[in-house]
Structures are given as structure tokens and as C-alpha cells.
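Subject: Sanity check before I submit

Could someone independently write out the C-alpha cells for this chain? I want to compare against mine line by line before I put it in a report. The sequence has 224 residues.
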Amino acid sequence: RSTVPLLIAADAERGAGQQFDGCVALPPLGALGFLDDAAGMRRAGQVTARDLKRTGLNWALAPVCDLDLAPGNPIIGTRSAGGDPDRVGALVADWIDGCQSEGGMACAKHFPGHGRADADSHDTLPSVSIGATWLERDELAPFRAALDAGVASVMTAHVAFPALDPTRSPATLSEPILTQLLRGAMEFDGLIVSDALDMRGILVAGTEEEVAVRAIEAGCDALL
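---
Independent answer below. Compare away.
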């Protein structure tokens, strides 16, 4: 009954079948990335969007644009298309193109990159301590490719990047990362959505109500 079109989303990194019976379940992005097949990646995005729309949803919280860089990372792994920035960027751009060509919204996550973290942001606040030059060369490359592909939305990471924000705030609460970098330097004009606000990686900064307000102030448009 809403007079405003609603965004109804689901994690669909492995297709809508990851969440819903009767929909196509796809292999992890790491398996698809290993094939290095642009047409196959685009097809995965198309199938995901078609299934979601058939189920009544219009927003896929995918693809993962993080790089698989840290062997000890407990949360990314096969959710990533690989460790090479340029190849991952090309593959996620294909997935986004496929998804959005079918009328679904895609979401590049988790900005500016969770792949080098050695902890799970569901449990704690990870910190990535490498310099800005390395981040620019590696972590940001797939996100730039996603933006060039016209991705509709970007999801933030509950990860601290001291080289980008010396306050060590998680990216979700960081005005230098979301407003100055993503909106400003990278010229993204789509939707910025937080990662889930019930995760310990964000709740180290306050209550769920407090971090919700801070996320909006930092540059998020929507809260998960």
C-alpha cells in the first residue's frame, strides 16, 4: 500500500536459492571467479535478479567486491571472486551488469574492503593497517570497477582503516571514508547502505540506536 516504491532486499551472493526454496542456488563467487568466465558471471547476475523479482524482491545485497587476500580471514574466503584486483573488478562488473540488466539492484560490498582483515566483523572490529597507496591499488580497484559498471548501491564494512581515517572508526561510521572518499573522490552518487547494525564490529562504538545515527551522519543513506 506504500505510495513510495519500497526496496526489498536479501543476501543473494549465491543466488536467490541461498535464501528461498524454489529458486536457483549458485556456487560461491570464488568458484565462479576461478572459472574466469565473463559470460558465466553475467549469467549468474541475471539468474539472481530474475529469481528475486519472481519472489517479490528487487535488491540483491551482492556481489562481494572484497579481495581474498588474508589466509586467516574467517569471513570472506570463497565469498570473494579471488585475490587479483583487476580480475575481480572485471568479474564483479559482469555480475552487476547481468543483475541490473534484469531490473534488479546490485550492491557492491563491503566498502572499502574486508578481505585483508584477520577477524570477523560479526564478532569484533577488525583493523586493516596497510597504507593508503596499497589500499588504492588493491582494495579499492574492484569497487571502482563496480562503480564504473553503474552499481546501484554500496554496502559499508565494519572495519577500521587507520590510513583512511586516523580515528580508527569503522568505515560505516567514518565520514572521511564514506563522504570524502566514496562520495567525493570516487564520485559515487548511488545508495550507501550499512552492513548489519547488530554486528559486534559496529556495536563496539555504541548502542544500536547510537550507531544508527552516527552511520547516517557519516554518509549512509540506508541502515541494515
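---
OP: Matches mine. For the report I'm noting this point. The two ends are 22 Å apart (CA to CA).
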